[in-house]
Design brief:
The chain is mainly α. The protein is 64% helix and 4% strand. It is globular and about 100 Å long. It holds the Pfam family TPR_12.
Length: 797
């Protein structure tokens, strides 16, 4: 126990005063001083997160008072129906600015939070899919990555369920079609959804009862006022007539007006008439080139873009063009430098020029983004002015930058699990470097969406070598972060790219990664298929190290399904290969896995012998994660043979590692063993606290199977406290989850525990029914522990 805890009086744990929802190491979870029994809150806390995703309010917003009044009217509840507002209008008319301005004025009416996404409906790249957006929304609402459903329909159903009794403002920006939107619409009357789109989205009006606000161009007065705000402090002598003419040339579109105003502000001594003449010349050029005479607003926007773009220094103009290739959303100056092939210092200067010209938006903290129209214009200029070779090289530079940066991050975040491979040279690029675990983790969390986009872009561009390598170096980080959705996506793409190239070693690595992601997500059948394919490829290649890795993965896959003989065989084969290769750490890890199989069989003395040897090696090589797991297994074996004090010392060491290294997945699992030890030491109140801490963390991580194991342990603690009614409730909850996951072993254990509680409640019929079902479930297991449980069930009838 920590030194600070040793001075406290031994708690008489009887009443749980408080249970923190995050289950972290600093939780205050106490129970004491109520005699005669424990009361415990039956329901675990729901997803508690209140998202605040709205971007900041727009700067220089002008008037739109009538539109704001209309929005206030159309957003009123109507007979309890969900509220849906569409702001429609042409490109650059200010739909997003109006939506954000209004959202910030009404957000206090939505105390449960705000959700925002840019659907990229008209970006040159791929629009955001409902499946991807729902994944982000659900995570923002507190749903762990492991708990995310795999299909869009199931995600939409969970999303609607979470929002059912909440008041949340949802802003869906830049939508293209009704089909893109429908899965994202809450079903609750307390929520308000605001959509911006260039389309009228008539289907949503007809079927979902959406209210539409058609946003028109700014009035002449408002357009002149906006220009005045942009040039304020720089120009004071411009004539009203000239301002009106400039506004007309900009089609009274806010986006074009801001860019033109910035151009005027940057030349305070140049008469506005000359600037207008330049813009007319540019407009004439567009007229000569344009084949579409019916889109005056689009022509005006392109004219203003060209006018501002042509005034840029050549270096900044080149930067602007190459930024059109960026595959993600927000980007940093080092990414921009990689695209342009320049230094980071020069990239920052160029970005300053682009921000000053309103061609790129500064999001703060060295992060930048494009308006979709400007991204399209940058792509147009890139196609016209840069050769295919230059475009290919720029794309390759930025993808290589991400590859080397992710490799540096994985080595800090998960050094023993990182994938070692010969990377292509980074050349003159300056990839990200990290001097600490936390710096690398912060970078990954900022760039995770861009990394997935980079994998997709690399595959789409035919850069398959970068594709599978980038997915490979991301594996260790995604595994560490439980980022299963992204992990499955990138591993699938990586496997496909390696197969296209015929790079069998890369394909095997990607299949191994995909198998592990699917295994953690409990998609066991496909996980096993991936590992068998990876094993076959590695055997064909003569890759003995890879073969041993695959044998270990298949052993874990069999162990998860309690096929103990098959698991032990795989572990023994893998250990033999690693031993021949001199891989001491891997030998120790597989011995620990063999020990776990022995513990499941009830062979505790042999497991203990294996673990003492494994612990010495893992301690020597510095693998704290592996060391903690071996300590947990040792605690299990010692408890099972009646040595709870020694078991307590072992589990305390494991929990100290998980706590200090922020390994919540292991902390939750090891807390459950602590609860078992506390029960063995006749400390049911302490066991109640430990089991519930485990359950709360598992809930947050999204591992419902292990959460149910912790809930069942809570029931056992109640039984030790003679609170059999509460115990039965928890055993029933655990059994329901195990039944849902089709886990016969855990279900049989929960039913056996429930039967014992029902005996004390004088409910013999239900108790017998539970025992019959549990006995039938145990028929598929032939190990000694299962046989002992069958015997106990038969004796209790």
């Amino acid at each position: 126990m920590p030194a600070d805890d040793q001075t406290e009086p031994e708690p008489s744990v009887e009443h749980l005063n408080r249970l923190e929802t995050d289950g972290g190491a600093g939780d205050v979870v106490q129970a004491r001083d109520v005699h005669g029994g424990v009361h415990f809150h039956q329901s675990l806390p729901p997803f508690p997160v209140t998202p605040r995703q709205l971007p900041g309010p727009p700067h220089g917003f002008v008037n739109r008072q009538s539109e704001l009044i209309q929005l206030a009217k159309v957003a009123v509840d109507e007979a309890g129906a969900p509220r849906l507002v569409i702001i429609a209008g042409t490109a650059g008319v200010g739909k997003t600015s109006l939506a954000l301005r209004w959202a910030h004025t009404v957000r206090s009416q939505f105390p449960d939070g705000q959700l925002y996404t840019n659907l990229r409906g008209y970006d040159p790249g791929t629009p955001a899919t409902p499946d991807h957006v729902l994944g982000g929304f659900l995570r923002a609402l507190g749903v762990p990555a492991r708990a995310l459903p795999s299909g869009v329909d199931d995600r939409a159903a969970l999303y609607r369920s979470i929002l059912a009794d909440r008041r949340v403002l949802v802003l869906l920006d830049n939508a293209a079609t009704a089909g893109q939107l429908r899965p994202l619409l809450p079903g609750a009357a307390g929520c308000l959804t605001v959509v911006t789109s260039r389309s009228r989205l008539s289907g949503l009006v007809a079927r979902e009862g959406a209210r539409r606000l058609q946003l028109d161009l700014l009035s002449e007065d408002d357009a002149v006022e906006l220009l005045g705000r942009v040039v304020a402090g720089y120009r004071t002598a411009d004539e009203r007539a000239e301002q009106v003419e400039l506004a007309r040339l900009c089609a009274r579109l806010p986006l074009a007006l801001r860019i033109a105003g910035e151009r005027a502000a940057s030349r305070p001594l140049m008469p506005l008439a000359e600037l207008i003449a330049d813009l007319r010349d540019e407009s004439g050029l567009w007229d000569a080139l344009s084949t579409d005479r019916d889109d005056a607003e689009a022509d005006a926007v392109r004219t203003v873009f060209a006018w501002s773009y042509r005034a840029l220094p050549e270096s900044a103009a080149r930067m602007f063009r190459f930024l059109g290739l960026f595959p993600g959303d927000e980007f940093s100056s080092p990414v921009a430098a990689a695209l342009a092939g320049s230094s980071t210092w020069q990239a920052r200067r160029d970005l300053d020029a682009l921000v000053g010209a309103h061609l790129v938006e500064d999001c703060g903290h060295d992060r930048y983004q494009f308006h979709d129209l400007l991204r399209a214009y940058a792509n147009d200029q890139l196609t016209v002015l840069e050769s295919e070779h230059e475009r290919t090289e720029a794309r390759r530079r930025v993808l290589t930058w991400y590859l080397h940066s992710a490799d540096a991050a994985q080595q800090q975040i998960s050094p023993f699990e990182c994938y070692q491979l010969d990377l292509p040279s980074s050349g003159t690029l300056a990839p990200a470097r990290f001097d600490s675990y936390h710096a690398a983790l912060s970078w990954y969390r900022t760039e995770s969406g861009n990394l997935v986009a980079a994998v997709r872009a690399a595959a789409a561009a035919g850069e398959h070598g970068i594709t599978w390598r980038l997915s490979a170096v991301m594996r260790a980080i995604q595994m560490h972060q439980n980022a299963f959705d992204e992990w499955i996506t990138t591993a699938r793409i990586g496997a496909e790219s390696a197969a296209v190239l015929g790079e069998l070693a890369g394909e095997a690595e990607a299949l191994d990664s995909l198998g592990k992601a699917l295994f953690q997500s409990r998609v066991l059948a496909e996980a096993g298929a991936c590992h068998r394919r990876a094993l076959g490829i590695r055997r064909d290649l003569g890759d003995r190290f890879g073969v041993a890795v695959s044998l270990n993965a298949l052993g874990l896959w069999e162990l998860r399904q309690r096929r103990l003989t098959a698991a032990a065989s795989y572990f023994a084969q893998g250990e033999a290969v690693f031993n021949e290769l001199g891989e001491r750490r891997w030998v120790a890890l597989l011995r620990a896995n063999r020990a776990e199989t022995l513990c499941e069989r009830g062979d505790y003395p042999e497991a203990t012998d294996l673990l003492h040897g494994a612990l010495a090696v893992l301690r020597d090589v510095g693998d704290r994660y592996g060391l903690g797991n071996a300590q947990y297994l040792l605690a299990w074996a010692l408890r099972a043979v009646g040595r709870p004090a020694e078991a307590r010392s072992a589990i305390d060491l494991a929990i100290e590692i998980a706590t200090s290294d922020d390994i919540d997945m292991r902390l939750a699992h090891w807390l459950a063993e602590l609860a078992r030890i506390e029960l063995a030491q006749d400390e049911p109140g302490e066991a109640l606290v430990s089991s519930q801490r485990s359950a709360v963390i598992q809930r947050r991580l999204g591992d419902r199977s292990r959460e149910a194991i912790a809930i069942d342990l809570t029931g056992q603690a109640y039984q030790h406290l003679d609170r059999h009614d509460e115990a039965a409730k928890f055993h029933r909850r655990a059994a329901a989850v195990h039944r849902e996951f089709n886990d016969p072993w855990q279900l049989a254990n929960s039913l056996a525990n429930l039967a014992t509680a029902l005996d004390h409640l004088a409910e013999p019929d239900e108790a017998r029914s539970c025992r019959r079902e549990a006995t039938a479930l145990l028929g598929s297991f032939d190990d000694p522990v299962a046989a002992a449980l069958r015997q106990r069930l038969s004796e209790d009838r």
